[in-house]
Every structure is written in structure tokens, then in C-alpha cells.
Amino acid sequence: MNENFNLQESLKKYFGFDSFKDNQESIIRTLLDGHDVFVLMPTGGGKSMCYQLPALLMEGTAIVISPLIALMKNQVDAIRYTSEDDGVAHFINSSLNKSAIDKVRGDILSGRTKLLYVAPESLTKEENVEFLRSIKISFYAVDEAHCISEWGHDFRPEYRKIRPIISQIGEAPVIALTATATDKVRTDIKKNLGIADAVEFKSSFNRSNLYYEVKPKTENVDKDIIKYILQNSGKSGIIYCLSRKRVEELTKVLQTNNIKAEAYHAGMDAASRTKTQDDFIMEKIDVIVATIAFGMGIDKPDVRFVIHYDIPKSLEGYYQETGRAGRDGGEGACITYYNSKDLQKLEKFMEGKPVAEQDIGRQLLKETAAYAESSVCRRKLLLHYFGEYYKYENCGNCDNCRNPKKQVEAKEHLCKVIQVILATKEKFKDDYIKNIIIGRETEEIMSHHHDDIDLFGCGDEVDDKVWFAVIAQALIAGYLYKDVENYGVLKVTKEGHSFLKKPVSFMIVENKDFDDIEEMEPMQSGAACAVDPALYQMLKDLRKRMSKELDVPPYVIFQDPSLEAMATIYPQTIDELQNIPGVGAGKAKRYGEAFCQLIKRHCEENDVERPEDLRIRTVANKSKIKVSIIQSIDRKVALDDIAVSKGIEFEELLDEIEAIVYSGTKLNIDYFIEEVMEDEHINDIYLYLKESETDDLEAAIEELGNDYSEEEIRLVRIKFISEMAN
Length: 726
Known about the structure:
This protein is of the alpha/beta class. The chain has five domains: 2-202, 3-Layer(aba) Sandwich (Rossmann fold); 210-402, P-loop containing nucleotide triphosphate hydrolases (Rossmann fold); 408-508, Winged helix-like DNA-binding domain superfamily/Winged helix DNA-binding domain (Arc Repressor Mutant, subunit A, Orthogonal Bundle), CATH 1.10.10; 533-616, HRDC domain (DNA polymerase, domain 1, Orthogonal Bundle), CATH 1.10.150.80; 624-725, Orthogonal Bundle (Arc Repressor Mutant, subunit A). Helix content is 49%, strand content 11%. The chain has 35 helices and 17 strands. A seven-stranded parallel sheet has the order 3-4-2-5-6-1-7, with helices on both faces. It has a six-stranded parallel sheet with strand order 8-13-12-9-11-10, with helices on both faces. Helix 13 (315-322) links the parallel strand 12 (303-308) and strand 13. The two termini are 53 Å apart.
């Protein structure tokens, strides 16, 4: 079908863009060809375009299933701007009265409506199903599709009824979209939506700047952590613990050792939590000690280390928590302490929950334990868990790759594993397979009479941990796979069958036995820093002093990457300072003089020879879109109109405006804010930002509650930064 459309022309015509982002064009062509599609794309990657453009091009109406009423309204407004006809997009949800719904239905029946947004609850209503059966459906789009999955973090029962309703209304292609999903969640989504053969498009989970290390937890763990923090003095870090009691005990130990640390957990009152978070953002404290169970909502870009005192409940949780390190692209050390007793504690917490939930919980814990005990590249393991292939054997930025263990030949071991899996009809998990190989007469094995097969006890001379290593590394190599629908039953792949017929070399590294390690190796820090360390520290101290004097957070003055660049190329004039990333003309003039003087003095006192390239670098060109946005705001053009004229979503426009004000340019958007917000709302948010001394969005949402939308907070935050910092 897609040869009938010139997608580039259509993109330009409807949205004003000259080119597609990443996979957008392939996704759209696949959908136009009538295939089911699964899209995993990070926030800001342009997911909505993947269904909005094909809906405008195809015959009939696209049904977009979305969880948030506010989100629907924004999307509908945005689509209406692309057309002269407001009837091109509508939503149906609980906020509409009968006459409004009748108007929507009239537009759909007349063929004017190309996109209809519905909440899953509205989709299941009998009268809506009956109406939708009478119209031509172009396709179904399921946004925020992870809400479907019981394996996901946002289980929503109504989402699991979508497939039966689609079948009632009428078959058409389905596109499912999400910004976060593991292999298990993807499988669960596709199974529940009945799109097992959907064409998948996904973006990378790799964070190359993060250093991963797992250390054995011994009696010296507190001492080891203190030593590490003191060696990385002045750097920001988060330490996660399993219990509130441990959080408070460890905080006291750190404070006793002159480390600026505070506790943060759900048992504290809101005011104390807010103060701790603000002090962390303002660099009054260096370390926050928090419970794993509590969502921090920290968006601080320069967190340099995340330490897990206790192992997390799942690799999803681990990935999310370690992901708070190095968001500015700089150094980020992720250190985890592990012993098997932690797993037993976590399993105990599951008692009393439904059996199915306990099964899922144990499977997630098992994946975490396998990650901790493995000697294989941690990045490779982590990405494999998220369904992504990492082609390098050595990433150079994890403990296993920096200190590789000797590899041993395991060709015969893998043959035995494959033979046992096939002999037991591919119906059992790794524990069961390992017990047959070792020759353990468990109750389950005997009940299946598998103690009678020839292979029972065929590997009794080899230790348990070797068999786990063989299985884990055979999964990564693609010889085996786990059937996640059956909680981890092992199956043999096509490559596994070929291997058994004609074995080739299969080298493995044995898993670590953490419970037998007494002494810890010294903890590594993360990526090396190529800056002048003495100057960098002086610049940080100067920023801190200015932050106190001006009563603004340090990052409002300059962010860490800007200071690192200053300590690398030594700018000594305001013009030179504007070559530094993240330093605009306004910021350079407002704050730069003291920094330039400090750098000049440091260079003279230490005979520093500045890099030649500084003299030939030119001030970075501001992108045309930024200049155009500034000019439009000066002319008091409504922000939503600016977004439409630039062919970008409103959220993306706010990203651009934030980048402009954070780099030091003053913008006045009062004309727009006063039009779309109540004075009381503006004053409340502004007062919050003034008192909290933090611009963290999630913290603001948590503190201000549900009375204000994310958009409102972002708009007032732009006003605040512009007025207070520029």
C-alpha cells in the first residue's frame, strides 16, 4: 500500500518537518502495509508521529487507546492544527457530555475524523463498541502499552481487555507503543494484544558512560563505602538500602565519618524529605541514603555514583536506579553489594501475596542474582535482559571486563545441558535441568521419573555454579532461550540444535561465589576524568560560593559538563567562555567574569599552556529554530502556535525554551502563561520554586500534588529560571 504515498511530502505538508527521526519512516511504512507493529522508543523520540501521519493518510478512522485524559486533549489539539477542519481528531472519555459525544459521532460518520482517542474504560462501553462497529477502522494504536503487562511497572486491568474489544469492533492492524519494556514485558504486551507476529522497532538501552561493579557484601561493607566516598570527596551520590532502619543506621555512620549525608525514605514527613532533596540539589549535602522501595524522582544531572547496599528486587529496578548516575554524559559509577542472604530477605517479603505474583517475583529475583554472580560483561548481560544484543565481548567499563577471569572450554558441558533439555521435552527451568545433570533426587524429578533417564547424574563431578554459568552464557550466545510465558522454561534454539550435531569451541568464565569471598578488592571509580582536577575543584568551590550569595541552585549558574570543559580548555575572556557547551551569551555576561579571572590566575601561577584550538574555535551557532523561537516570543506569539509553525510537539517546544533560558537568555512568556493559567496557580508554583531552591520536575509534581499539570509547572519553571537566574 505504501507506494501510493510520498511520505516525505506528507510529513512536510501536515507537520512541517523535512525529515523523519530514527525509525519513524520504517514504522509508518510497515503500518501502511497492513502489518501489526510494536514500537519501543524513548520519551521524546517521536512516538505519536508513528500513528498520527498514517492515520491522516489512510482510509477510515484510527482508534488511539490512551491512558490519560490530559494527554488525549493535547494530542487532539495538536492534530487539529495540522488541518483546516477541527473534526479531523476527537476524543471520547468520561469528561464529555451526551451532546459532545453526539457531535463526535456525527463527525466520524461524515468521514471527517481521522483519529479518535479513547480511554480503555470508554472503549469497553457497550454503546461505544456498537457505534465503532458501524465505521471503517484504519488501525488501532495502543499508547503507553506497558500498562497492559503484569510484568510491567504499571499494571492496569482495563488494558488487558483491549484485544477482545478489538475483535468485537472489527479486525485492523494494531500498533503498540511504549517508552519502557523488557523482553518479558514486550512478550506479554504482544501476547495480550494478539500481535505475536508484530514487526518490532526498538531503541538502545546502552548507557556507555556508566561503570558497573558488583562486590561481595562482607562485614567490611560500611568501611568500604566510607573509603570510596572519601576518595571521591565532593561528588554527588545515592546509596540504596533495603530497609528504613538500615538507611538511618548507615546515614549516622557516614555522618560520624564527616561525610555530608542525609536519609530519605517514605517514613519521613514530606517537609523533611523535601529539605533533604533540596539540600542534595543545592550541594549542601553530597550523599542521599534511600530505600529501594521509594521512588526518588531525582533529575540531578551530575550524580557521580549510585551504590546498592542491598541487591534490588529486579533488573528493571536496578537499571532505573543506576540510570540516575551520569545523566549529563559524564562519569557514573554503579556499585552493588551482594550476598545470597539478601535474596532470602526479599523472598520473605513476598509471602502472603498471590501465588502468580510470587512466581513472577521469584523469577525477577533469580535474574538479578544471575546478573550479580556472573563473570561475563555486565553491560552485555544487562542489555541481553532488555532484549538487546551487545556485539562486543569486552565493554571496558565494568568490573568483569576490567578484570577478566580466565576462560575455560565448556563444549562438552553445553552438549550435556542441551541433551538433558531435549530429553525432558523442553518443559523445565534451569534449576531442574541442573539437578538432573548433577544427579539430585528431588521430589519433583522423581515424580517425573527423570531419575531413570540415562543422562541423570552425567555431570556430577562438576560444581553447581559451573552449570549455572554454562546455562547463562549459552542463553547470551543464543544456543538456548527462556520461554518467559512459562516463567523461564528452557528451550533449545535452532543454533543449539546445530551445536549439538556439530559442537564447536564454547568458552565460559565461571560464576563468582560471593558467599565464599572474605576480602574485598579495592573499589574502582568510574570513567577517568580528562580535566585539570585542581582547577575543576576551584571552579566548583567558586560556583558554590556564588550559589549561596545569589540564593540560586549551583546548576543554575553552570552545570558540571560546562565546568569540566572550562578546566580542559581554560577560557580567560567572556568571548572565549561562550565556546563552552551550555554557556550562552547571557550566562557568560552574568556569571562569567569571576570564572575567567580564576582560570587566568590559575594558568599564570601554574604555567599552564592553553590548548591551541581555543584560539580558533568560534562561538557555536545557535540553531535556527532557537533564534526563531526567541523572535516569536518577543513578538508575543502564543506558544502552541509556535509549536505548530515549527512542526514540533508542545512538549518539544518546552524542551527548546528550557534549553534557551538555562543557557542564560532571558525570555518573557508572561503573556502566554497569564492567558492559559489562573493567577493563583502561577503564584503557588512560583512560590514553591522560590522556597525549594530546586527545579526538579518530579519533585515539584510530588510536592504540588494533582492540582497542577506537568505543563503548568514547566511553564512557571521557565518564568522562574528566566527571572531569577538570567
